[in-house]
Recover the amino acids of this structure.
Protein backbone atom coordinates (compact mmCIF):
# COMPACT_ATOMS: atom_id res chain seq x y z
CA UNK A 1 0.00 0.00 0.00
CA UNK A 2 1.17 3.50 -0.79
CA UNK A 3 0.99 6.39 1.66
CA UNK A 4 -1.26 8.31 -0.72
CA UNK A 5 -3.81 5.48 -0.57
CA UNK A 6 -4.33 5.83 3.18
CA UNK A 7 -7.59 7.61 3.87
CA UNK A 8 -6.25 9.17 7.07
CA UNK A 9 -3.39 10.68 5.06
CA UNK A 10 -5.77 11.96 2.36
CA UNK A 11 -8.03 13.57 4.96
CA UNK A 12 -5.11 15.17 6.79
CA UNK A 13 -3.82 16.61 3.52
CA UNK A 14 -7.28 17.98 2.69
CA UNK A 15 -7.76 19.70 6.04
CA UNK A 16 -4.31 21.25 5.72
CA UNK A 17 -5.21 22.79 2.36
CA UNK A 18 -8.57 24.04 3.63
CA UNK A 19 -7.02 25.65 6.69
CA UNK A 20 -4.30 27.22 4.54
CA UNK A 21 -7.01 28.68 2.28
CA UNK A 22 -8.41 30.55 5.28
CA UNK A 23 -5.12 31.62 6.89
CA UNK A 24 -3.78 33.11 3.66
CA UNK A 25 -6.58 35.72 3.74
CA UNK A 26 -5.92 36.91 7.28
CA UNK A 27 -4.23 40.22 8.07
CA UNK A 28 -0.52 40.17 8.85
CA UNK A 29 -0.92 40.22 12.64
CA UNK A 30 -3.33 37.26 12.58
CA UNK A 31 -1.09 35.33 10.20
CA UNK A 32 1.97 36.04 12.33
CA UNK A 33 0.37 34.91 15.58
CA UNK A 34 -2.30 32.21 15.33
CA UNK A 35 -1.85 31.66 11.60
CA UNK A 36 1.73 30.40 11.80
CA UNK A 37 0.95 28.10 14.71
CA UNK A 38 -2.21 26.76 13.11
CA UNK A 39 -0.53 26.26 9.74
CA UNK A 40 2.39 24.38 11.28
CA UNK A 41 0.25 22.13 13.44
CA UNK A 42 -2.23 21.18 10.70
CA UNK A 43 0.55 20.50 8.19
CA UNK A 44 2.39 18.44 10.79
CA UNK A 45 -0.47 15.92 10.93
CA UNK A 46 0.19 14.70 7.37
CA UNK A 47 3.95 15.28 7.60
CA UNK A 48 4.31 12.99 10.62
CA UNK A 49 2.14 10.36 8.97
CA UNK A 50 4.54 10.50 6.02
CA UNK A 51 7.60 10.20 8.20
CA UNK A 52 6.15 7.30 10.15
CA UNK A 53 5.13 5.54 6.96
CA UNK A 54 8.70 5.76 5.73
CA UNK A 55 10.16 4.12 8.83
CA UNK A 56 11.14 0.46 8.71
CA UNK A 57 10.22 -0.69 12.22
CA UNK A 58 6.75 -0.52 13.73
CA UNK A 59 7.91 1.15 16.93
CA UNK A 60 9.58 3.94 14.96
CA UNK A 61 6.49 4.37 12.81
CA UNK A 62 4.20 4.41 15.82
CA UNK A 63 6.31 7.15 17.38
CA UNK A 64 5.60 9.47 14.43
CA UNK A 65 1.93 8.48 14.29
CA UNK A 66 1.64 9.59 17.91
CA UNK A 67 3.28 12.90 16.94
CA UNK A 68 0.71 13.18 14.18
CA UNK A 69 -2.09 12.68 16.70
CA UNK A 70 -0.55 15.31 18.97
CA UNK A 71 -0.42 17.78 16.09
CA UNK A 72 -4.05 16.99 15.30
CA UNK A 73 -5.10 17.97 18.80
CA UNK A 74 -2.86 21.03 18.74
CA UNK A 75 -4.68 22.04 15.56
CA UNK A 76 -7.95 21.71 17.44
CA UNK A 77 -6.71 24.20 20.03
CA UNK A 78 -5.55 26.74 17.44
CA UNK A 79 -8.84 26.45 15.55
CA UNK A 80 -10.73 27.02 18.79
CA UNK A 81 -8.66 30.13 19.48
CA UNK A 82 -9.27 31.35 15.91
CA UNK A 83 -13.02 30.79 16.32
CA UNK A 84 -13.15 32.45 19.74
CA UNK A 85 -11.38 35.47 18.27
CA UNK A 86 -13.81 35.58 15.34
CA UNK A 87 -11.14 34.72 12.79
CA UNK A 88 -13.12 31.80 11.33
CA UNK A 89 -16.85 31.32 10.94
CA UNK A 90 -18.91 29.03 13.11
CA UNK A 91 -19.66 26.89 10.08
CA UNK A 92 -15.96 26.48 9.21
CA UNK A 93 -15.16 25.78 12.85
CA UNK A 94 -17.80 23.06 13.10
CA UNK A 95 -16.66 21.43 9.85
CA UNK A 96 -13.02 21.47 10.96
CA UNK A 97 -13.87 19.98 14.37
CA UNK A 98 -15.89 17.22 12.72
CA UNK A 99 -13.02 16.49 10.33
CA UNK A 100 -10.54 16.41 13.20
CA UNK A 101 -12.71 13.91 15.06
CA UNK A 102 -12.87 11.68 11.98
CA UNK A 103 -9.12 11.92 11.37
CA UNK A 104 -8.45 11.12 15.04
CA UNK A 105 -10.57 7.97 14.90
CA UNK A 106 -8.98 6.86 11.64
CA UNK A 107 -5.49 7.57 12.95
CA UNK A 108 -6.11 5.57 16.13
CA UNK A 109 -7.54 2.70 14.07
CA UNK A 110 -4.54 2.79 11.74
CA UNK A 111 -2.11 2.66 14.66
CA UNK A 112 -4.00 -0.31 16.10
CA UNK A 113 -4.11 -2.11 12.76
CA UNK A 114 -0.39 -1.89 12.05
CA UNK A 115 0.34 -2.92 15.62
CA UNK A 116 -1.69 -6.08 15.18
CA UNK A 117 0.20 -6.93 11.98
CA UNK A 118 3.61 -6.42 13.54
CA UNK A 119 2.78 -8.52 16.62
CA UNK A 120 2.27 -11.68 14.56
Amino acid sequence: MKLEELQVYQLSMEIGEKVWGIIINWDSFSKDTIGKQLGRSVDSVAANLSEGFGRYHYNESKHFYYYSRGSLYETKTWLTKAYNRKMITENDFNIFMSNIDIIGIKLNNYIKSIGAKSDK
Remarks:
- The first helix runs from residue 7 to 23.
- The mean pLDDT is 94.
